[in-house]
Amino acid sequence: MDRWEEGFDAWVPSKDGADESKSDDERRELLRLARDLGAARDAAREPVAVELEPLKRMLRQAVEAVAAHRRGLAELRRGFEAELAAARAERELAAAEREHLDERERTIHEVEKELAGMRVALEEQRQQLEARERALDERPSFSEGLAELSPTSKSRPAT
Asked: Which of 18, 65, 133, 150 could serve as a FRET partner for 6 with CA atoms 20 to 30 Å apart?
């Protein structure tokens, strides 16, 4: 505590009226000094306040620019998240389509194997039928067979 502040703590108005005029004078002087000090402080602050106004304005502009930048970043983030969600949905759809195509490919492969088996079986049947047909072609015709069986045909010439 400064020396001049100690005087305020120790000052007590006297009870008799003689000191009252002296203390009123001191009080008025003290109030005048306080006013002068306040005026001097305000005068000292005025140039600083004049300098502070452009700085405050620049600070407000910088804060607005930062807020606008943050809003832009938030907008970009929302757009990125939307694109990311769309990409994920596309990837899931592609995976589902790929699974569907894989299933179709397996089915086609099974059908092809079945058709190849049928082709082999049909080829075997065709070969068996051709062998039977050749065997039938090599056999004598019905009339020839009858002629061979009849006892008279050996002695008679064919007409």
From this structure: 18
- Give the side-chain half-sphere CA count within 13 A for 138: 6
| C-alpha distances in Å from residue 31, one per residue of 6, 34, 41, 129 | 17, 5, 15, 137
Give the angle 64-68-72 at the CA atoms, nearest 5°. 170
Residues 31/21, Cβ–Cβ less than 8 Å: no
How far lies 16's CA from each of 19, 24, 25, 28, in Å?
7, 13, 16, 19
The answer to whether the predicted template modeling score (pTM) of the entire model surpasses 0.85 is: no
Q: What's the pLDDT band for 8 if we cut at 50, 70, 90?
A: low
